[in-house]
Design goal:
The chain is an alpha/beta fold and 204 residues long. Helices cover 27% and strands 20% of the residues. It has a ten-stranded mixed sheet with strand order 1-8-2-3-7-4-6-5-9-10, with helices on both faces.
Length: 204
Amino acid sequence: MLIRLYPENPSERQVRMIVECLRDGGIIIYPTDTIYGIGCDIFKVKSVERIAELRGLKPGKTMFSFICHDLSQLSEYTKPIDNHLFKVMKANLPGPFTFILNANNNVPRHIQSKRKTVGIRIPDNQIPLDIVRELGNPIMSTSVHDDDEILEYTTDPELIYEKYRNLVDIVIDGGYGGNIPSTVVDCTEDDIVVTREGKGELVY
């Protein structure tokens, strides 16, 4: 199913329909502030396994990130963070960043890395934020990759739908996506380290 949503004002009725799909174990493709993502409810183990298979990844050996709707929800899934890190995150979120943080016991094992860390995003796009808020818990996030040797990420939602229409339950058309991934910031040690330069430029 292809659903058109407008980032400025996502339809509440359609958001609820998407959330019902997620609660039933569905998989969705959705826009972010960087590239399109594939996601599901983080607590649906079989759905996470389906996405891993779809992407050719191994659950348990790949660290999937997930999307929270704000910093207060983020804190439910991470070990306590100090004031400096909180200020950095507050200055940069919502935004095109994936923060790698130490996970607490609320993070399902099939989402955690072996290091017991988790990547968390709060994208600057109202569509995934509204979905997560309505769902009541985060959704998993991994990128929609392209088979093209030059273009790593597909930006046209209609082309994404053509490719994935029989592989996922819903594709959300939120307009053209970007082709630059998020900047990844490792915050698991004392120093904050940018491990992948992406769309965002971190403000300290």
